[in-house]
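To illustrate this point, what follows is a protein record of this kind.

___
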Amino acid sequence: MDNTPESGLNGFCRKNWALLLGMLLLFSAVVSFYGTWLNYFYDIDEPKYARAVYEMIHSGNLLAPMFDGMPRMEKPPLTYWVMYPFAWLASLDGFSGNILSLLRLPTVICSVLMVLGTSMTGRKLFGPATGLLAGMILQSSVLFKFMAVMMKVDVVFACCVTWATYFYLQRYLGDKSAKVAVGGAVLTALGVLAKGPFAFLPLAGYALAVGIRHNVNMKNESGESSSFVSAMNIKGLVAAKWADRNILLLWFTAGCVPFFLWLYVAWLSSGFDYTQGLVGQFFHNTASTSSKVTDKLSHLDPYFDTLTVIFFPWGGYVFGTVYGIWRSIREKFNEKYVFMACLFLVYLIIFTLLFKLKSNRYMLPILPLLSILVCDWLVNAKRDKAYRTLFEMGFVWILSMAAMLGYRSFKSMSVSVNLADRVPVGQYMDLMLPFFIALGGFFLVMLIVSIKQSQRPAVHIVVGSLAITVVMPFYYKALPSYASLTVNRPIPILAQAVTDRIAEFSNSDTLVIHRPFFIKTFPDVAYYLKKLDKDGNCMYSLGSGARAGDLLQVLATPQIAAELFKKEHPDAEKYPVYQYLKNKKFKNAVLLLSSVDYYTIKPFMDSLPPMIKSLIEIEERELLTIKWLKEKIFIVRFNPGKMK
């Protein structure tokens, strides 16, 4: 695309780079932080990280992540490590009150660093104006904003690969300094410690781009014409990698060594082989019922949905961006577009052909690349008839999406909490109306700054970014809320409601029992057990798959809990939960059951002698789960006082 290096806009941004970048980062921090104070979890993964780092604080073991006293082997440790300092600050006050905003700060910081990395990469590729505006596009995109407030691995991982990409790009463009080599090595290592081998994807994209450039240069030297497809010559790709083998080996080794060192030290410190869990999780996520490439390619729709809808409000310009890149590469080989295209291609192929689970959040590492490419097309493309047509198509798409999202929420009387799950809001539509009005205001603003404004794309980007962020306060005010069992909206949220209810008749001397599937389905319950222990200690629960009779026996005599756990886990001595069960002097117990678990155990309880059955109290509550669905939960306990 036609980028004029010293155009008026680029000259202004270059002259005021430090000031404009500081303003962008301040904007990013404010927008990312908004919504962190909600006192419940957005999705099912958040409490797993919160509970794991909570246990790290109490155990002092930073190498072996645990969840409710059991090894949490699904993810490498970097996310827990970046959360640890903030969890330590929360521990100074005994983890009292709502500390979720503190635990979410690491992902807020990582999101700001992603915006910075996007700006630096955009500047390196297409100039300072593109860098700054690309950072603004990224920060104002819906998927990025949603993920910025969630304490989970995705933003931490995306931050690492964004900055790794920046160093790979510098090397690709000819900077062979030690600073670039070391920077790439450090960021690769951090990426692998965040999400394992998936951190090597941008490195694979870099290697592919180097190979394609090598093939194109060879064809040009021999006087042959070249295209993107013809440049995929295997021999040339291998030759290019061999010529660049030292830096590739350095970055690959830097990624592997710290990861395997952590696995070894974690095994020494805990006795658990975390390799098994990580490998199992990998195959769980990548296993597929079909090995046919055509079948896998037919499931691209979640990612196209991300590129066009979840990248709201900028997804409408993806079509123009694709056309602009195609035209630029067709007219003349451009190594910058080839680099970006190779990275994008590697991500898309791996996620499509390898992953069984399709999720919008898997596209988060691609959003910085997408923001840069969209911004480059908007700002730097030739202002011809094709550009004006695609620009108008883009803003029509944006306005259509805004209208569709508003209509969908209004018709279903529900609002999305995390881009995957929706919660009904019909009971408090008075709070939803301001949100709909604000969304309508965004519609009008975008309409005004879009019609016949193709000559001023920078104004379009800035005003559009600010307009979508103004909608945020109205959106967050319409989300569910929980203050107590009696003050909540629309109904009590399960984890807090259950622990608040248990706290009314028990304390830290109470044993909490459940089926293993219960805590997998409602992991936030494990986190909120801290409400029951007023002394600030780490309280665990007993997840048992034992027979109904054994389960009720533990409910009546909780002192045998450690014995039951050891029966199910012969190596029980390694587990923190076993040490807790063995050393704790329980005075009573409570059994938490989902609907499925309850109706499985109910026949046995009905068969008990009337005198024993009369001692069992069963409380049924309809609550809002972490999947934002209504679910019946049963709280079962013995009340020996009824014998008097």
User: Anything to note?
Assistant: The longest strand covers residues 616-624. Residues 529 and 539 are 6 Å apart (CA to CA). The chain has a mean pLDDT of 87.
